[in-house]
Design brief:
The chain has about 190 residues and is of the alpha/beta class. The protein has one domain (about 1-190): Rossmann fold, CATH 3.40.50. The protein is built from 6 helices and 6 strands. It has helices at about 15, 30-45, 55-70, 95-100, 115-130, 145-155, and strands at about 1-10, 50-55, 75, 135-140, 170-175, 175-185. It has a 6-stranded mixed sheet with strand order 3-2-4-1-5-6. Helix 2 packs parallel to helix 3 and helix 5 (about 115-130) packs across helix 6 (about 145-155). The longest helix has 18 residues, at about 115-130. The chain is globular, with a radius of gyration of 16 Å. It comes from Paenibacillus allorhizoplanae.
Amino acid sequence: MTVIGLIRHGLTDWNTERRIQGQTDVPLNELGRKQAELLSLRMKDEHWDYIYASDLGRARETAACIGNVKQMEVNTDQRLREMFCGEIEGTTLEERVAKWGEDWSQLDLGVETHQQIAARGMSFIQEVIERHPNQKVLIVSHGALLSLTLMDLIPHEDIEEHLHNTSVTTIRHTENRWECLQYNCIAHLDGFE
């Protein structure tokens, strides 16, 4: 049985501004660093064997906070990057509508498909369960990658709620089946935001 903790990175200025980040390497802001610190305190007394993260700075920095507290190395993998958003990266909804019109989402603007991003996530998860059987693995990544991967892993669960920054979703793999132990948990932020 392999247990995987899926974590969305801390807050960035672009999150606050509702700008599409995609694979643009936007750093955590001050609030995001505080969220990551609170997350790491939550993880301090939990047992985890490995930490993996997207190679984008906001995920790496969130993972590094946990790694520092737990004295664990963080390994990065490009497959854990956020969805590539092509021409819309860095834009707000208002900017997209002004530039491409109300039907901007129907245009080919170089955005990675949901199937492509889920395939990246599934490829990494499959490698984790093969490499780390019966271990506990943390993965720090991004909202779209995590959500789309979870839709493939646990389609029988209600996971419609948008993943919060530094949320923890824990899944367990047993006998070719995935089970969700907790979804989108931000208990470590209680009373903070």
